[in-house]
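Table S2 (continued). Query chain:
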Amino acid sequence: MGISLYDATVRGFLQTLGAVQGFLERGLKHCSEACVDLSEITETRLYPDMRPFNFQIIQAVQHSVGAIEGVKNGVFSPFRESALDYAALQNAVAEARVRLKAYTADEVNALVGRDVVFQMPNLTMPFVAEDFLLSLSVPNFHFHATTAYDILRTKGVPLGKRDYLGQLRVKT
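Corresponding output:
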C-alpha cells in the first residue's frame, strides 16, 4: 500500500503542531518561572534579517492548515501578520490542530491533481496540490516550526529533540 496525501501532510502537521503546542507551553512555564516578559520571546529573531518568533509560529500554522485550505480554494496566499502575543500564538496553534483533525483522509486525498496557485504580492507560482504541499508547504512548515523551537532554546527554555518530535506514530 502506498502512502496517501493525507498521511504525508495532515498526519505530519498534526504531529509537529502537537509538539509546537507542547514547546509553547514549556516556554510559557519557563518565562513565568524566570520572570521573562513574553513579548521579549515573541519579538526574538535568530538573526537581524530573520523574522521574529511570532512570525515563525504563524507561518507554521499557515503552511499546515492554511495550505490545505489553500488547495481546497485553489489559491494560497500566506498571511504575513506577525504581531500576535504569546497567548494568541498558542490559540492559533490549538485552533489549527482542531481544524486539521476535522479533515478526513478521503477529503484530503481527493485534492490530488487539483490546481493551486501560490500567490504573493510580486510572485505567482502554479502547482498541482500534491506538489504544492510536498515541495513548498511541508518544507516551509518544518522550517518555521524548527526556527520557533530554536528561538525558545536561545532564550533558555529547556527543550530537547523529543520535544520537537512530538507524539511518534509507533506500531501498536
